[in-house]
Amino acid sequence: MAALVILLCAQALAAEMPQGKYLEAPGAKVAVILAHGQGLDADSQVVSPLRKGIHRELGFHTLSLQMPVLHVRPSRDLAVGTAYIATFPDAFVRIQAAIDFLRQGKGVERIYLMGYSMGGRMTTAFLAEHPEAGIVGSSAWGSWPEDPNRSTRTSTWGAFGYRCSTSTPRTTWTHSSPPGGEASWPGA
């Protein structure tokens, strides 16, 4: 009976997986948390192929969070970007829940944050507000709402040497080294 009580208490203390898409990597001590852009979801155009590629190529746990989404048409308009600021406290709760789930529930020791577009804003704001969170690295990229003159076509070197080429309506990822160096991930 005592063993059953201990088991039930241990399960209650284990962190619950937040809403999103998760790929487990048994035995891995490294994880990447991904955050999508405005109006998208945890399995959308940029974060889904990156999540799957990191898991497949590097053997890391990957968790793409369902970030808060406003019920407005996605836009690079400054007003829409500013409206998302009200969702940041909820985003911070989701990011912290992901960290807790990976550390407590999966035994992960090193966690990286990656954010695309508004997800990049949310992850960098989280790190600014919570420097004690123990994140060992982060990467944020995409077009920001404050810059309405920014091209809809971007080409960015993300972490792990994945090159993102985005042009409406298609995003492609290729794995290669950035100009001038080898692609690597510290501490992997």
Describe the model.
With 188 residues, this protein is an alpha/beta fold. The chain is built from 5 helices and 8 strands; from the N terminus they run H-E-E-H-E-H-H-E-H-E-E-E-E. It has one domain (18-151): Rossmann fold (3-Layer(aba) Sandwich), CATH 3.40.50. The longest helix is centred in the middle third of the chain and has 19 residues, at 88-106.
Q: What fraction of residues sit in β-strands?
A: 15-25%
Q: So, CATH architecture?
A: 3-Layer(aba) Sandwich
Strand order of the largest sheet: 1-3-2-4-5
**Sheet with the most strands?**
5 strands, mixed
What's the helix count?
5
CATH fourth-tier homologous superfamily: Alpha/Beta hydrolase fold, catalytic domain
Q: What's the mean pLDDT score?
A: 76
Fraction of residues in H or I helices: 25-40%
Distance linking N and C termini? 42 Å
- How many discrete structural domains? 1
Quickly name the level 1 CATH class: Alpha Beta
Instruction: Provide the gyration radius in Å.
Output: 17 Å
Q: List the quaternary state of the chains.
A: single chain
Which shape, going by the Cα principal axes? globular
| Class from secondary-structure proportions | alpha/beta
Q: Give the helices and strands as they follow along the chain.
A: HEEHEHHEHEEEE
CATH fold assignment: Rossmann fold
